[in-house]
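Quiz preparation item.
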């Protein structure tokens, strides 16, 4: 029987070479899409963003039921002057009347339907997408999403 002995330095050299190869491949061929902003989308192109209505419910120790509605995702980031089509999908709740604070944009999202809202913000800032049906703490938790414009 014949055994081949590989010196430790060749194993280490091969390991380092493989790591460098994977690093180069990842750098040259990235497949991930940034979620906080996409540098490949120019402000002249229209960006499509999807949000859904969601509901959380629970029972307290005394049997009282509590619930909260939310927009998901709860925060989106867009560039100033970026044209956006915000697609709001009604999943939970029969309907949600909404407005975007600081604008004249308002509408209704109905369960099982999609409401398309064209957006283009001229000023930087944080805008609130507020559900008028669930807008206060009296409703157990306000249904608010944030649109961050940079």
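Solution:
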């Amino acid at each position: 029987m014949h055994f081949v002995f590989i010196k430790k330095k060749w194993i280490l050299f091969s390991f380092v070479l493989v790591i460098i190869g994977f690093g180069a491949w990842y750098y040259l061929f990235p497949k991930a899409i940034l979620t906080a902003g996409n540098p490949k989308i120019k402000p002249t192109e229209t960006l499509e963003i999807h949000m859904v209505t969601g509901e959380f419910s629970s029972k307290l120790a005394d049997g009282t039921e509590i619930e909260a509605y939310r927009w998901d995702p709860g925060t989106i980031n867009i560039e100033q002057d970026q044209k956006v089509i915000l697609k709001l999908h009604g999943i939970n709740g029969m309907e949600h009347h909404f407005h975007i604070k600081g604008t004249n944009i308002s509408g209704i999202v109905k369960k099982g339907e999609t409401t398309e809202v064209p957006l283009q913000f001229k000023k930087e800032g944080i805008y609130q997408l507020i559900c008028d049906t669930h807008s206060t703490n009296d409703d157990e938790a306000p249904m608010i999403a944030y649109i961050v414009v940079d």
